[in-house]
Amino acid sequence: MDSAAAALATEAVPSIPRDDEGPVFREPWEAQAFAMALTLHERGLFTWSEWAAALADQIKRAQAEGDPDTGETYYRHWLATLEHLVAEKGVTTTEILHRYRDAWDHAADRTPHGKPIELRPEDFAG
Asked: Scanning 41, 54, 65, 113, which has its CA 20 to 30 A from the CA of 10?
């Protein structure tokens, strides 16, 4: 991960969980969500101000729906915000995002614990 970009992100989005060395993550997927947001920002899909506003809106919606806001769901909000912005910007559609989510769920269901999850064409049937 680009440490300069990570530093800029933690300054621009002050709610990012961090310690003295930078962002901290509970699970590998959280770091991947963070990296995706950095990459899409670097490629010009959104500004940090736009990202921060969209993330704040997502968190407010989740809280209104009962999210306890304990910090454990923070990067789930990042994923939801990423999905919203890539659909809003026309990079993909919500339908395609859901199709891939369902395919990954199917692939995960058939994969033994500890083995890498691999998508196959049949994961998209259904």
From this structure: 65
Distance CA 46, CA 65 (A): 26
77-93 pLDDT, tens digit each: 999 999 999 999 999 99
**84-87 contacts, C-beta under 8 A, 24 or more apart:** 84/54, 84/58, 85/40, 85/45, 85/46, 85/50, 85/51, 85/54, 86/40, 86/45
- Residue 109 burial (CB count, 10 A): 9
Question: Whole-model pTM above 0.70?
Answer: yes
Distance CA 63, CA 61 (A): 5
